[in-house]
Amino acid sequence: MTSADDRSGDDSLRRLIEQARRGEAEALGRLLERHREFLRRLARRTVGDRLRVRVGDSDLVQQTLASAVRNFGRFRGREPGEFIAWLKQIHERNVQDAIRDHVGAEKRALASEERLGDRMPVSSRHADAGQSTPSGHVIRKENLAELDEMLDRLPEDQRTAVRLRHLEGWALPRIAEHLGRTELAVAGLVKRGLMKLRSEAAQREQQSD
Fold it and tell me: 20 to 30 A Cα–Cα from 183, which one of 25, 54, 91, 110?
């Protein structure tokens, strides 16, 4: 059974929709603002913890609202339910785009680590059968004491990221959550740390020749 308040609310939304369709920007703004909380709850349900590290719920809501403003001219409905369904379609596309961007960024970060590992001097690697990360061979050293010494000279955030990634075998999302950083930031820390280790290993090799 529909209450009087529900009917009144629907009538109010219909008026806003009609005004927005006539080109009244203020009405469109009020219409979208009324659905901000709905979009926030929807984002909380549809965005997984792993993706939330990279893009927050509020970011997705803003993207959806911005897309709705740009594309409102294509909306042909007049009923509140039609408008909600239209907003959900926009939100779902934004989530899919965010997931695609997230996966692509993670692949690029891993590829960057692997390219860096391919350039690490062979004599600077330590055979570690328990290493499971794709580029784990990057910091394998013949002398683990020497490796610890080199790691200790890295900045703390780089040292932690490199240790967790390549000695503990943690995945990027887990490290990002542990450090309170984004996955891209963690990938950057690991990359810079590995570059410094590679440079120092090459210098030591030259000194030993």
Answer: 91
